């Protein structure tokens, strides 16, 4: 009986030691935990900021006889330009890599220019401008490339003078036009966004019928402008 008992004890000890050894051995066929995926910047949200830049425009004053609107063969081209600065407010919503947005801005400037001769001079001054636009962008993580288009607003002050008669007249023309352009934004941090953009703005054609200095003459204007801006915004 002693021999079978010793054999059973030895078998139990062997099985116990084998199980302990198996528990200590590394498991085969199990992969290490996957690394965490990188997080991408989320452009969704409201932002507010400011911008500075430079605007250069063009305007042509073409003169016609008021009666019958016959061309008088007189036209002047001039280019009002100015440094600009203002504020912007916008909202972005991101769908995958596509970013949809809307933005509005208001700017102050001191653009002025004039042209003419002894037969008459025309001067223009522009002190503010603004816009409301849609934006369509493509996100490259913290870089956003976008196009923008919408409505533009401004007030243009024109002064018409007749040196020979010693008369002058001034009008304020509130104008609504369109603007289009594009830009690049870069998220410096999760909240601060640095940007640069370009836009072209066109205020259409309109007439001024002379009442004193330009009595009997109608002046047609075609104001437009280009502008580049650098901006810094805070995203909520």
Name some characteristics of this structure.
236 residues; eight-stranded antiparallel barrel; 10% helix
A few lines on this structure:
With 236 residues, this protein is mostly beta strands. 10% of the residues lie in helices and 67% in strands. It has one helix spanning 2-24, and strands spanning 45-65, 70-78, 81-95, 98-117, 120-140, 143-162, 167-187, 192-202, 206-209, 217-221, 224-235.
Q: How many strands, which pairing sense, and closed or not: the largest β-sheet?
A: 8 strands, antiparallel, barrel
In the predicted model, the low-confidence regions spanning at least 5 consecutive residues are 7-23
Number of helices: 1
Taking all Cα atoms into account, the compactness measure Rg is 36 Å
Structural class of the secondary elements?
A: mainly beta
- Share of helix, binned: under 10%
Would you write up a description of this structure?
The chain is mainly beta and 236 residues long. 10% of the residues lie in helices and 67% in strands. The protein contains one helix and eleven strands; from the N terminus they run H-E-E-E-E-E-E-E-E-E-E-E. It has one helix at residues 2-24; strands spanning 45-65, 70-78, 81-95, 98-117, 120-140, 143-162, 167-187, 192-202, 206-209, 217-221, 224-235. The protein has an eight-stranded antiparallel beta barrel with strand order 1-3-4-5-6-7-8-11. The longest helix has 23 residues, at 2-24. The radius of gyration is 36 Å and the shape is elongated. Residues 7-23 have low confidence and may be disordered.
């Amino acid at each position: 009986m002693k021999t079978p008992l010793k054999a059973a004890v030895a078998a139990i000890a062997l099985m116990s030691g084998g199980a302990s050894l198996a528990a200590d051995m590394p498991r085969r066929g199990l992969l290490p935990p996957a690394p965490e995926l990188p997080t991408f910047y989320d452009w969704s949200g409201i932002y507010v900021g400011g911008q500075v830049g430079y605007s250069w425009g063009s305007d042509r004053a073409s003169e016609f006889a008021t009666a019958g609107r016959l061309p008088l063969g007189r036209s002047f081209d001039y280019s009002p330009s100015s440094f600009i600065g203002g504020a912007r407010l916008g909202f972005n919503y991101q769908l995958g890599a596509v970013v949809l947005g809307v933005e509005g801005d208001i700017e102050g400037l001191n653009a002025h220019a004039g042209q003419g001769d002894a037969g008459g001079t025309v001067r223009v001054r522009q002190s503010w401008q603004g816009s409301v636009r849609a934006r369509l962008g493509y996100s490259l993580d913290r870089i956003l490339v976008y196009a923008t288009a919408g409505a533009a607003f401004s007030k243009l002050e024109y002064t018409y003078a007749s040196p020979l008669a010693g008369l002058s007249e001034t009008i304020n023309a509130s104008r609504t036009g369109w603007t289009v352009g594009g830009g690049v934004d870069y998220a410096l941090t999760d909240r601060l966004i640095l940007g640069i953009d370009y836009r072209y703005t066109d205020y259409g054609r309109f007439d001024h019928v002379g009442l004193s200095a330009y009595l009997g003459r109608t002046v047609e204007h075609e104001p437009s402008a280009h502008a580049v801006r650098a901006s810094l915004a805070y995203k909520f």
